[in-house]
Amino acid sequence: MTLTEGLEHILRENEPLAPYTSLKLGGVAEYFAEPTTRAELMEVVKRFSNERLPMRVIGGGSNVLVRDEGVPGVVIHLAAPEFCNLSIDKNRLVVGGGVKLSHFVACCAREGFAGPESLVGIPGTVGGALHNNSGTGGLDIGSWTRRATVLTRNCEVLERNSEQLSFSYRSSSLNELAILEAEFLFEQEPADSLTRQMQRNWIVRRSRQPSIDMPAAFAFKDQGGELASELIERAGLKGAKVGKAEIYDGNASYIVVQPGATSQDVMRLIELIRNQVSDRLSVELPLGLQVW
Ligand SMILES: Cc1cc2nc3c(=O)[nH]c(=O)nc-3n(C[C@H](O)[C@H](O)[C@H](O)COP(=O)(O)OP(=O)(O)OC[C@H]3O[C@@H](n4cnc5c(N)ncnc54)[C@H](O)[C@@H]3O)c2cc1C
């Protein structure tokens, strides 16, 4: 049996990954799977695990840089309705890993669930946000997470309860192959004030980050209590460019790319920034972006 046999409707070869990422760059996935049910997902994982081939899950692709030469093995995209459920019970929310973070945030504000209004404007999915413990201004998604259902690389479905979960700055213990669903618990506040706060946060954020249609990456983590953008500016790198990749004028935390850019341009710009920050400020700037 070939890897794709019987799964041709959900498993393709040589799929370009650029359209699935915020940077709109990079080569193809050797295999690309879009399962529509948990059983199909498990069948894909079983086959690639048996052959010991690499497996990755992509969410919104907002924190991934795909190399120009592409990605071996399978990239799994959990965008089907099966992975995008959202259900509410009092002040608890159970959400599929494929749900867009914007949808999660808006739903929380509407239901009077306090906290996630601070995450408005962060692109991607709930699964990607949990994997990275995404957040802003000291609040991150892990603060409200109580349970997660994950699928391991050995094709086991496991429950992770709050004692087994740990979250720290842009990092979480959720590093199994796939986060299928998670449960969140919230304090309640009036929905109209949360909605107004979410709108205010969105206006501030929109003025500080590249517009939605601009291919961009939020490349670096803050370090030693200082914002990555401040470190980059202090190292004299405002406006730095390599090929068609450059530091975003409005906020040095972002890398933006012009038409014709390659992933190699972005990698060389990242290297330049990290080297100069290290040489000039003696600070090792941690990379937030994942290079595939
Ligand atoms: C303009 C812009 C602004 C940003 N602002 C912020 C910000 O303020 N704060 C912040 O923290 N981040 C920010 N980011 C980074 C990024 O949006 C977040 O890290 C986001 O949560 C990533 O989610 P994603 O679904 O796009 O993940 P992806 O980029 O698709 O994947 C990231 C990682 O998560 C894993 N992953 C994705 N889905 C799943 C899943 N279901 N199960 C298991 N693993 C999974 C992937 O395998 C990969 O390792 C920004 C990015 C951009 C482009």
Describe it.
With 292 residues, this protein is an alpha+beta fold. It folds into three domains: 11-81, 2-Layer Sandwich (Uridine Diphospho-n-acetylenolpyruvylglucosamine Reductase, domain 2), CATH 3.30.43.10; 84-207, Uridine Diphospho-n-acetylenolpyruvylglucosamine Reductase, domain 3 (2-Layer Sandwich); 211-291, Uridine Diphospho-n-acetylenolpyruvylglucosamine Reductase, domain 1. It has six helices and 19 strands. It has helices at residues 38-50, 101-111, 126-132, 191-208, 228-234, 263-281; strands spanning 11-16, 28-33, 55-58, 64-65, 71-77, 86-89, 92-96, 135-136, 139-140, 145-151, 157-161, 167-168, 171-172, 178-185, 216-218, 241-242, 245-247, 254-257, 290-291. Strands 6-7-14-10-11 form a five-stranded antiparallel β-sheet, with helices on one face. Strands 1-2-5-3 form a four-stranded mixed β-sheet, covered by helices on one side. Strands 15-18-17-16 form a four-stranded antiparallel β-sheet. Helix 2 (101-111) packs antiparallel against helix 4 (191-208). The longest helix has 19 residues, at 263-281. The mean pLDDT is 96. Bound molecules: flavin-adenine dinucleotide. Residues 22, 56-64, 78, 97, 122-125, 127-129, 131-132, 134-136, 170, 178-179, 209-210, 216-218, 290 line the site of flavin-adenine dinucleotide (FAD).
